[in-house]
Amino acid sequence: MHIEDICRTITPASGEAGLFNVEVDESWAQGRTLFGGIQALLAVRAMRAAMPDLPPLWSLHTTFVAPAAPGKLALRVELLRQGRSTVQMAARLMAGEQVAAMFVAVFGASRDSVVSLKPVGRPLAADSSSSPELPFIAGMSPEFTRHYAYRWLEGGLPFSGHKATANRILLRQRDPGLMEEAQIVAMADAIPPVALSLVKGHAPASTISWELEFVHHGPAVSNDGWWRMDASLVAARDGYANQDAHLFGPDGELVALSRQVVAVFA
Asked: Are residues 159 and 227 in the same domain?
């Protein structure tokens, strides 16, 4: 299923307000659960289905609770508060009766402000041809990565035992369609944890929580362009790793900030 196919499966459940049914196939699996980015995409799209006139998304906090296997799932959406310019909503992804993931989102309309600071952009054009595209290898690559293309610019590949604590990766969505808000949400979770680059040999890892903040909203763009994610390992101890990342659009402008807590079983 392509991303647009998945979005079309988000349908209101009969008899219960705020409940939506969804379906995702095995091509979006990451181990025994669904790729976290597609879970977040579903939550954002379900929120917008519940309230079609929501302003742009500024913050999304995700807690991954339990595995969500591919197949039919449900999303429960709840309005927490609606103010003059911001709307706060929550969603729970349900795998049967089990909560698989919880999401809290803040949507906000633009307002005049005396505070204005545009982050420094980083041109991507020179980067796009400097590294070969990684192939998808069935049985070795996480299934969901078939939907994305990757080029490593700096740092180490997962399980390479690299010493660098930062990765700089070009990526783009292979699925057809424009890069809009929800597609950007999904792609912002598509790179592997930096901690896995420091591991020599295979080891499982699982994201516990993920915070995504938008800093810029522009018009939808083609999926042809390469985006770049600069990710750094901030700390790691007791089996948990903290990671920060910056997502830059094809024009080099900073689009989103990401922070994750990852459990590493190595």
From this structure: yes
| Span 221-253, pLDDT tens digits | 999 999 999 999 999 999 999 999 999 999 999
104 shares its domain with 127: no
Residue 32 class from Cβ within 10 Å (0-12 exposed, 13-18 middle, 19+ buried)? exposed
Phi, psi of 24, rounded to the nearest 5 degrees: -135, 135
Report pTM.
0.93
| Beta carbons of 1 and 146 less than 8 angstroms apart | no
For 220: left if phi > 0, alpha if psi spans -120 to 50, otherwise beta; the answer is: beta
**What range does the domain containing 27 cover?**
1-109
What pLDDT sits at residue 263?
A: 96
- Do 155 and 67 sit in the same domain of this protein? no
Residue that finishes a domain, picked among 109, 134, 164: 109
The domain total for the chain is 2
